[in-house]
Every structure is written in C-alpha cells, then in structure tokens.
Design a protein that fits this description.
Pfam families: Lipase. Helices cover 24% and strands 27% of the residues. By secondary structure, the protein is α/β, with parallel strands linked by helices. It folds into 2 domains: 22-320, Rossmann fold (3-Layer(aba) Sandwich), CATH 3.40.50; 331-445, PLAT/LH2 domain (Lipoxygenase-1, Sandwich), CATH 2.60.60.20. It has a 10-stranded mixed sheet with strand order 2-1-4-3-5-6-7-8-10-9, sandwiched between helices. Strands 14-11-16-17-19 form a 5-stranded antiparallel sheet, with no helix packed on it. Helix 3 links the parallel strand 3 (75-79) and strand 4 (106-112). Helix 5 (121-144) crosses helix 6 (159-170). It starts with a helix and ends in a 6-residue tail after the last strand. Bound molecules: calcium ion (2 copies). The site of one calcium ion has 6 residues, from loops.
C-alpha cells in the first residue's frame, strides 16, 4: 500500500515536471524566411503569475483545456509589429514579466511572426486585418467563457497597434483599453479611421509617438497622445546612417523602453498638453488646471487614472522629454528670471541643483531666450533626475558670444518651482552673473522673503 502511494506520488511529480518544462517559445525565424516571405500563422502564448517565464500555447477554439487561463482575471494582449529579420522581439519577455509583477492578470503574447516576417512590408501590412479577425474570433470565445470585454487590454507596438485597433473595431469599440506604442505610419498615414487605429476602437485609447518622421504615425490617434521628445527623434539614438541598423529602428523601439519604465514604476514622466513641441519647450504649456487635483497626466501604464477627464476632453495631445537611457523620466521646474540690466540680453541658461550627494542638471538651450529689464521670463527646465532636497543651486548664463566683451547679467530675482510636487518655490535675489561663469548659491524659500 505504502509502495503504491509512493509510486503514485512519484508519477504525479514526474507529470508536473514534464508539464512545467513544456514552455512554448515565440517563433524564431531568420532572414531567409523573411526574404521568401511568410504567411500568417498566429500563436497565442499565455503567461500568468504561476508561469511568468514559461509560455503556454493556447488553443484558438477550445479554452476548456486551459485551466490556467482564468477569465475572471483581466487579460492583456501584447502584439508586436513588423519583423523584417524574422527574429523574436527582444522586449517581449521583459514586458510580460513587468506586467505580471504589476498586476495579477493573464498576459497573452500574440506571436504572428509568420506574417510579420516578410521582406515585403506591404505583405505584412496585408496580414494585419487577417490577424485581427483571428484575434476577434478568439476574444468572442473568451466572452462565451465569461470574460468581459471591458477587462481586455491590448498593447500594440507599431503594426500591432493597428491590429489592436481592428480587433477593437470588430468588437464595436467595447474592449477596455488599447495602448499604442509608436503606431506604424507607412501605409496607414492618411487613411480613414476604419483602416487604422482611432479613438473609437476601445473605451480608452492611449498612444505614444516616438518616430513620427519615419516609422511612426504623426497625427494623434487616441484619447491621449504622448509625443516623447516631440515624437520625432529620441535622445541617445544614432543621428546618422553610419551607426548601422539601429539608425532605422532606435527611435521607433524607444517607445517600448519608455513604456517599461512606466510599468515598473521606475519613475514618472508627467506630460503637458500643448499644441506643439516648440510651445512646450518655450514653457508656454505648464498649466495643468484642466485635469483638476490629479495634475497633468503621467505617461504610460497608469494613465487610466486620468481616464474620465481625458474622455471628457475628447482628444489631448501632450509632450514630455526624456533622458537618453533608463530611468528616462525627467523632472520639470518652472524657472522665472527677472533682470535689471538696462539693455536686452539674449542667452541660454544652465541650472544645476545640488542635493545631499547628487546633482541634477538642466540646460535650457533649444533657443536663446530674451531677457528684458523688470520683465519676468518664464522658462521650462528639465532635470535629468529628481532631488528630494535641494541644498544649493548653480546658474550659468551664456550668450554664445565669442568676443572679448564679458557680458554681465544682473538678476533681480530667480525663482524655481517644481511642477509635480506641491512645495514652496525656491528663490534667490540680486545675483550678478558673468557670461559663461557658474555661480552657486543657497536658495531660499520664496515666501519667506520680503521681496
Ligand atoms: Ca479604427
Ligand atoms: Ca526619427
């Protein structure tokens, strides 16, 4: 009897181990497949907190064989884009892990590498509608098994963003949310809403643009559109073709990396509504009143916190800037400067904040600012990191003048206001700056002064 129990236990352990080892991998193709061309074949890979790194291949028709797919939990689909070389997207595993660390959900990676791997981009585009029909049928089966459409979230990268849109439209816009990470531009720009992602495709659609001049889509497509660093080129990405393949895809791929930082809460990028990037950099769009107490929306996973107000507003175009590497988020201050020089001064300002053991730097150099006597100039300073406590401030003013004349810059008042934290601004009065010479001082809390 004991031996029998022992054998049964051994058998069950062996079955468990075998089960555990059967991890389904993302389809790995190579350039030759892409050159010959591939036809659409979709694999659905399920990941949950019970198997974060081991994918389960899900049947498109028979969900009862997958007890791991618990439809009382929300389901997030991850949909990749064009795969010109046939390789699996490098970011899929990390995104899956981050999503599962953040929430107890089903993550379904939609592997349509057969279809996306095609030297002919137009063929891959053609496959997007078919891929969407396939996913729609699957979601309808999920519904039959008790899933609610509102709990369905699709994260689509590039072409994947439009696939998400087509699925959403097939389901009358009733899926909960679509996040589009640099939605593809080529073959979609200028098309009507039914041929691309648009804000009617889901209850809530948020979009990130990182490469609008090449692989991405320029116009707003969602309830909220984030233009990172203006949406055209990303800092740290190669500026010339001589840097190899990454020149073509670095801006586009940055969208996924920026999203990572928001899922793992590494830091927050507050985004400001504005009509253009230039206006934003000029510091003309720092008002967040329309969003009430919540302030301006924060880019990424948690933007659903602003969902109601964004739906009320209809369409909101926002801007934020980033660092060249993760953590990408920057910290925004409003810097107000008033001078009392008789003559007008033009120049650039660099501000350094000194904390206990760290330094944050912001250079306001997108254009030369004009400073006039007794006129307060408002500037946006974007620091590479956030310091909890600012001990000292350094300011450098440069006119860019190479002549010998050393301009003096008589500052009557400089005021620094953190735009995200509700805390008293920092001030300093009566500072004399010399062209290109850094001056360091201890800031005062503005209200404590009698100025
Ligand atoms: Ca659409
Ligand atoms: Ca670009």
């Amino acid at each position: 009897m004991i031996l029998w129990q022992y054998l049964t236990l051994l058998l069950s352990i062996t079955v468990q181990i075998c089960k555990a080892q059967r991890c389904e991998e993302f389809t790995d193709l190579d350039l030759s497949h892409s050159i010959i061309g591939t036809n659409l074949k979709i694999k659905l890979l399920l990941y949950t907190r019970d198997n974060v790194t081991c994918g389960t291949l899900v049947s498109h028709t028979n969900l009862s064989t997958h007890p791991q797919l618990n439809l009382s939990r929300p389901t997030t689909f991850v949909i990749h884009g064009y795969r010109p070389t046939g390789s699996p997207p490098a970011w899929v595993h990390e995104l899956t892990e981050l999503l599962l660390a953040r929430e107890d959900i089903n993550v379904i990676v939609v592997d349509w590498n057969h279809g996306a791997a095609n030297a002919n981009y137009f063929k891959a585009v053609e496959s997007t509608h078919k891929a969407a029909d396939n996913l729609t049928a699957f979601i309808k089966i999920m519904q039959e098994h008790g899933a609610s459409l509102s709990s369905i979230y699709m994260i689509g990268v590039s072409l994947g963003a439009h696939i998400s849109g087509f699925v959403g439209a097939n389901l009358n816009g009733s899926i909960g949310r679509i996040t589009a990470l640099d939605p593809a531009g080529p073959q979609f720009t200028g098309t009507p809403p039914e041929d691309r992602l648009d804000s009617t495709d889901a209850q809530f659609v948020d979009v990130l643009h990182t490469d609008i001049d090449f692989l991405g889509f320029r116009e707003p497509l969602g309830h909220i559109d984030f233009y990172a660093n203006g949406g055209t080129d990303q800092p740290g990405c190669p500026k010339t073709i001589f840097s190899g393949g990454s020149y073509f895809k670095c801006d586009h791929q940055r969208s996924v990396l920026l999203y990572f930082d928001s899922v793992n809460r590494k830091c927050t990028s507050e985004a400001f509504p504005c009509s253009s990037y230039k206006e934003f950099l000029d510091g003309n769009c720092l008002n967040c009143d329309r969003f009430g107490a919540a302030g301006c929306p924060v880019f990424g996973y948690g933007v659903t916190e602003w969902r109601d107000v964004l739906l009320r507003l209809g369409q909101t175009k926002t801007y934020f800037t980033t660092n060249t590497v993760s953590p990408f988020c920057r910290t925004n201050y409003r810097v107000e400067v008033m001078i009392w020089n008789k003559d007008v001064r033009w120049g650039y300002i660099t501000v350094k904040l000194h904390g206990n053991d760290k330094e944050a730097v912001a250079t306001i150099d997108h254009k030369a600012s004009e400073f006039k006597k007794y006129t307060e100039v408002k500037l946006l300073a974007q620091f590479d990191k956030d310091l909890q406590s600012v001990k000292k401030v350094s300011i450098k003013f440069s006119t860019g003048n190479v002549c010998k004349t050393k301009y003096k810059f008589r500052v009557l008042r400089i005021r620094l206001t953190h735009l995200e934290r509700k805390e008293r601004p920092l001030c300093r009065y009566d500072v004399l700056l010399e062209d290109n010479k850094e001056v360091t001082f201890r800031p005062l809390l503005c209200e404590e002064s009698n100025f």
